[in-house]
Amino acid sequence: MQRRTATILGIDAGTTSVKTVAFTLDGAIVGVARSTVHIARGEHGEAEADMNRVWDAAATTVSAVVDQISADGHEVVAIGITGQGDGAWFVDERGVPVRDAALWLDARTSDRLDAWLLDGRADAVARATGSPLFPGAVPLLLADLADTDPEARARIATQLNCKDWLRFKMTGRRATDPSEASRGWLDTATGRYSDDLLEALGQSDMRDRLPEVLDPVSVAGALDSRVAASLGLPPGIPVSVGLVDTAAAGVGLGAVNDGDGYAILGTTGFVGVNHARRSDVRVDASIVLSTGRGTQVLESLAPMTGTPNLDWVRDTLGLGDLDWREVERQAAAVPPGSNGVVYLPYGSPSGERAPFFDSAASAAWLGMSITTSPGELLRSVYEGLAFGLAECLDALGLDGALAICGGGSDSDLLCSVLADVSGREVRRQDAPEVGARGSAIMAGVAAGVFADLPAGVAALTPSSTVFAPDDARRASYRESAAVFAATRDALRPHWRALRRLRDAAPAPAPADPAPAPADATVLA
Q: Are 447 and 423 in contact (CB under 8 A)?
């Protein structure tokens, strides 16, 4: 009889897609499937997802991966789940969604947030959780629901999060973990729900509607028999508790000890450092998550300075048809400092949120002349992103190496510049799917496949490419970084006026659409 290969499934439910990845116990990826998730947007800033469709997307990917690996003799021994955080995912007594989930990027409560900032409720949230409020936080969304749809508010039986909803569908257990609870009503200093916060927000009736908080590396339940049959799996497979996606990525990168730091370079950025306790948190505006590893917390900043800056400059310079490797060759041919060209990477229409908050923040090129070359403009964007990320690293007090992942980390140039600018060794994993890998590691520990978290990290974490800072380049960047910060700060008082000018500009006329080829599929 053929010997079966033990395999762990890691599910990563992001904002726009859900992925399932199958890992063998040495960390090799043997199956991957992805399904998109539709976001419904409203005229008042709403951003919602149909919870049942999110589950359908997850189930579809699990089934697809099971089909991929079943013929090769793989046996699924554990399932781990991670997913997008925040938002409002409410179910009733029967486990049926009360309404579509409001997502983390939902902005309908912006005016309510302003009111809470004035009346002290936002301060109460910060005192308990250690984090500032933002419109997509569940306490604000709950308050909005109470005003706009009190009947739906009354039907709430349990507040879940994205991954908790998927786990509930698999096991029937209503539970969460400390990282998710940290974004609601958890006191991150004690690890318990704060009755004082619930009372201060007028939401004390939610106390019995909050899910139990479980150890992230424990088993939440076994795969239900009916669900298992629909997925092509045997019943009873242990499903672990897990962490929110940003914290799970840290596990996938092996950054689990106090002092470990990591960054995610994507559409937006994420920089996080583990601290032994909440009293070690360094930045008032940072996001603080309990990791479930004793008193440890993850302190993070989420700058808006992400990879869209690179996409924009490539297209703006007319290089959109070039492979990224050729684009980077042009940028790498320019010496560090971009011959005096400085780029402020605040290209997001939403402004900036870390290491400072300014919704009017704007991108700019400085130090240009008619002799400035495309290569200098290109390199300055890479350097501007690195300067912004290094400021976040310094604010969080990261002393050691920086583990890194996300689409931007595929760039050797960006990783190298970040190492030189920050003076820190940058370590990029040589394999993808970091969030799913982190959830698989935790599932393996929960199911007893690995003795503990360090053993799981050692088994499933792949090799890394290391970018070490160069002393000479590091020295040349010190002056550039100082100019970057000084010119940015000098421009800040004018950002709001610049934003008003931009907002007042007439919208460009839409271009006539090109006719679709005869065999093309046109999506509405």
A: no
Rounded to a whole number of angstroms, the distance between the first and last alpha carbons of the chain is 51
Could you please report the per-residue DSSP string of 174-185? -EE-HHHHTTTT
Judge whether 478 and 429 are in contact, CB under 8 Å.
no
| Cis-peptide, bond into residue 355, ω within 30° of zero | yes
Contact 382, 241 (CB under 8 A): no
- SS3 for 49-117, per residue? ECHHHHHHHHHHHHHHHHHHHHCCCEEEEEEEEEECCCCEEEECCCCCECCCEECCCCCCCHHHHHHHH
Distance CA 442, CA 291 (A): 12
User: Within a 10 A sphere around the Cβ of 350, how many other Cβ atoms?
Assistant: 12
| Residue matched to tokens 């509930």 | 168
Nearest to 207 by CA among 222, 228, 186: 186
Residues of the chain with CATH 3.30.420.40: 5-240, 255-429+470-503
Model confidence pLDDT, tens digit, residues 65-95: 999 999 889 999 999 999 999 999 999 999 9
Q: Is the pLDDT of residue 52 over 90?
A: yes
> What tokens were used for 366?
């400085």
The sheet carrying 47-49 orders its strands as 40-41, 47-49, 101-102
CATH topology (fold) of 255-429+470-503? Nucleotidyltransferase; domain 5 (3.30.420)
Instruction: Give me the mean pLDDT over the 148-168 stretch.
Output: 98
> For the whole prediction, is pTM greater than 0.85?
yes
Angstrom distance (rounded) from CA 425 to CA 441? 24
Strand-pair partners of 275: 297
Q: Determine the angle formed by the axes of helices 412-422 and 324-332, rounding to 10 degrees.
A: 40
Does domain 5-240 bear CATH number 3.30.420.40? yes
Contact 260, 401 (CB under 8 A): no
* Burial track 172-205 (b if 16+ CB lie within 10 A, e otherwise): ebbbbbbbbbbbbbbbbbebebbeebbebbebee
Report the distance separating Cα 21 and Cα 9, nearest Å: 6
* pLDDT of 511 strictly over 60: no
Angle at 502 between CA 499 and CA 507, to 5 degrees: 145
